[in-house]
Write a structure and sequence with these properties.
- About 75% of the residues lie in helices and about 0% in strands.
- With about 120 residues, it is mainly alpha-helical.
- It starts with a helix and ends with a helix.
Length: about 120
């Protein structure tokens, strides 16, 4: 799988990220670094431990990273979860929203692993 196919597999805008970052080498470098990003792990840990502050910070970080990398679908669901957690409370529908993030995160990670 090449980089453009990776972006297609996760319903994201390859052309936009190329316009913003300017080089396939640079985009690829940062996309592969995403595999080491700990924000999803922090989000999951925060929710499991009912630590709304950690969950919010982690969701916010994940959202920002996804925005910068042009991971459109993962950005959208992590952004919605960030707003849900903004008042630092874990609510009834937080789990359902996290499951959407987890699905998109897993899909994104699997596509990136296809680059390796």
């Amino acid at each position: 799988m090449n980089l453009e196919e990776c972006y297609e597999a996760i319903d994201s805008d390859y052309d936009d990220v190329m316009r913003r970052l300017g080089s396939e080498t640079l985009v690829r470098k940062f996309v592969l670094k995403f595999l080491d990003d700990t924000s999803f792990r922090g989000l999951k840990e925060g929710l499991e431990n009912q630590d709304a502050e950690l969950a919010f910070r982690s969701a916010h970080t994940l959202k920002g990273v996804c925005m910068n990398l042009g991971f459109t679908k993962l950005f959208e669901v992590s952004s919605a979860l960030t707003e849900e957690l903004r008042d630092k409370e874990i609510k009834e529908n937080t789990t359902e929203m996290f499951e959407e993030v987890e699905r998109e995160y897993t899909r994104t990670i699997e596509a990136i692993k296809g680059l390796c």
